[in-house]
Amino acid sequence: MPTARKSATPTTQPQGAKRKSGRLLLPLGLALFAAWIAVVVVGIAKEPDPGAASPQQLTSGVAETLHKGDAESLARYVNGDGADTYATSLVDKVKDSGNAGDISVSRLGEKQVQMRAPHLCMTWDIAKSDGRLFLDPVPPLTSVACPAR
């Protein structure tokens, strides 16, 4: 009489349990992927628009970021590809110049913004790109000299 062959490796789980956990793996992976996509989309949607809508907003935004010493936020207001590097360099210069509380940022008409800090004065032209206003990191040819303090 033929006898049933026994398996060389014993199974620790019943066959039904393996199928059940395998079936749950795909929906769980899809749910995690959908949650990750949702987090990315919400993060992008909450990202503030670069630049400013008006010269007043540009001036106040630049002043606020310089007072905080926040180069990442300042880069939003700088026009061009090297905005991050320029903003980091500017924040470092302002910190090296003295007390951050002594920083003043003001508009010079509708076309320029001027920043004054102890031992440092800079003027930027206002550049327009995609309907938003930015600081132009290229030094202006005609700028108003900083008055002595």
What does this 3D model show about the protein?
- A four-stranded antiparallel beta sheet has the order 1-2-3-4.
- The chain is elongated, with a radius of gyration of 29 Å.
- With 149 residues, it is α+β, with helices and mostly antiparallel strands.
- A hairpin with a 2-residue loop joins strand 3 (120-129) and strand 4 (132-136).
- It has four helices and four strands, in the order H-H-H-H-E-E-E-E.
Query: Which blocks of ≥5 consecutive residues have pLDDT under 50?
Result: none
User: What's the shape?
Assistant: elongated
> Over all CA atoms, what is the radius of gyration?
29 Å
Structural class: alpha+beta
Element order: H for helix, E for strand: HHHHEEEE
Q: Tell me the number of helical segments per DSSP (H or I, 4 or more residues long).
A: 4
Distance between the termini: 110 Å
Strand order of the largest sheet: 1-2-3-4
Helix content: 40-55%
Q: Give the total of beta strands.
A: 4
Beta-strand content estimate: 15-25%
Could you describe the largest sheet, including whether it forms a barrel? 4 strands, antiparallel
Task: Kindly report the average pLDDT value.
Answer: 82
